Structure prediction request, 287 residues.
Amino acid sequence: MTMNVERLGGSFVARVTGIDVGRMSNSEAEALHQAYLDHKVLVIDGQDLDVPQFAKFGELFGETVEHPVKNFLHPDYPVVMILSNSTRHGKPVGVKDAGSFWHSDRSYTERSADATMLYSVEIPDQGGDTFFGDLEALYDNMPDDLKARIEGRTYVSQYRWTTNRGDPEARWNMITAEERAKTPPVERPLVRTHPETGRKSLFVFPGVSTGVKGIVGMDAIESADLLDEIFDYMADAGATFQYKWQSPGTIVLWDNRCVMHRATTKDLPAEATRTLYRVSTLGGVPH
Ligand SMILES: O=C(O)CCC(=O)C(=O)O
Ligand SMILES: [Fe+2]
Prediction:
């Protein structure tokens, strides 16, 4: 079997074929890691993994880590989280919506996520696509004046913080007191440098999970205006890829240091069931 890597998107995303991730040689694992750095999102179809094999695969991309929200971790392999919109005996099987707004995983924790990977178990005929955005292209293509205004700046982020406490997805409604205590505010650079490739990315997100509180050293209005400008730019700039899940046994893996993503599971009708396993690896403090 020869491993082949084919670019699917304009600036990022590739399909990897000719590989069985359950039995990879060291040189194949190295080539896969290089493809991940080069293409930022990888799609690997036709795999046949059980939960421990998938957890083990995650270790190729760093130290696998439990999600800070604990209710849908796999009982035997808690580094594996279950994403699902199906129910069993009236109870949800997994996290129904892991993030409908653009975000980068764990960007709100001191050490953010490096890789996240999903493994499809059950896929509906239609819908449930995952969208990706290339944060390096967004930085590179940014108008010079906006680039100059964000260079060297930082912002404060806190998990599911929002000005609207009544929002059902706000931290006060979404997570337990213990989980709240474990998610203090953190300071983040607006422009992040990838520790392995040295490339620069825009690193701020409009999603409620990211809970952006404000830009450091600006008053509330100035900060909100600049954030609006950045988020408007991000919404219009393109540099995105829509991935349509096609079958069980597909791994989709991305680098949260230079890619943002969002789910569309909110729009799925109840009978269109979708279940995936998810593993994420612990990265460093973004700089
Ligand atoms: O379900 C999806 O399409 C993506 C979910 C997500 O944001 C995640 O797993 O980090
Ligand atoms: Fe996510």
